[in-house]
Amino acid sequence: MKNHGPSPVAMNTIRLLLMLVLFSPLAALTGCTSAEGEWMRLDAEAFAEAIETESGAFLLDTRTQAEWEQDGYLANATLIPHDALEEREDELPEDKSTTILLYCRSGNRSQAAAQTLLDLGYTDVRDLETGIKGWKDAGYNVEYDA
């Protein structure tokens, strides 16, 4: 009797394992999803890299004015509190495909802001998962007003 390769059960197992290997890293990068779309959550290192490599990205601080002054902010960031995004949409990039890099204090409010941005039609939204606290803990610099 000739051997004609792996059995159908073995082939299905191999296909499943290949799918897991190929798509698991993609799922880890994807972040949060909703019916409207998805955004990526980045650690401090990946966020810093995105700031450096994504020319034309819009850096958005979604905290309050008091937090901005007290805890510092990332260079070149625009402050629009997360609950004011819709009413201040005219301060956001006109091009909805512009990369938006956003952060808050600890990574919670920026998730709500990311969803608002998706609802407004933005398609490339990336969130600093650890917030500015994690950014500073990772050794990255912030600026303060003089």
Detail the topology: elements first, then pairings.
Layout: H1 8-30, E1 32-33, E2 38-42, H2 44-53, E3 58-61, H3 65-71, E4 78-79, E5 99-103, H4 109-119, E6 124-128, H5 131-137
Parallel strand pairs: 2-6, 3-4, 3-5, 5-6
Antiparallel strand pairs: 1-2
Short synopsis of the structure:
The protein has one domain (31-137): Rhodanese-like domain (Oxidized Rhodanese, domain 1), CATH 3.40.250.10.
Supply database-style keywords.
146 residues; 5 helices; 6-stranded mixed sheet; 16% strand; alpha/beta; Oxidized Rhodanese, domain 1
What is the residue-mean pLDDT, rounded to a whole number?
85
Number of beta-strand segments: 6
Strand % is 15-25%
Contiguous uncertain segments of 5+ residues: 16-36
CATH class: Alpha Beta
Number of domains: 1
- What's the N-to-C terminus distance? 84 Å
Rg value: 20 Å
Question: In order across it, which strands form the biggest sheet?
Answer: 1-2-6-5-3-4
Helix content: 25-40%
Secondary-structure element string: HEEHEHEEHEH
Largest sheet: 6 strands, mixed
Give a structural overview.
The protein is globular, with a radius of gyration of 20 Å. It starts with 7 loop residues before the first helix and ends in a 9-residue tail after the last helix. The relative contact order is 0.18. A six-stranded mixed sheet has the order 1-2-6-5-3-4. The protein has a single domain (31-137), classed as 3-Layer(aba) Sandwich (Oxidized Rhodanese, domain 1), CATH 3.40.250. With 146 residues, the chain is an alpha/beta fold. Helix content is 40%, strand content 16%. Helix 3 (65-71) links the parallel strand 3 and strand 4.
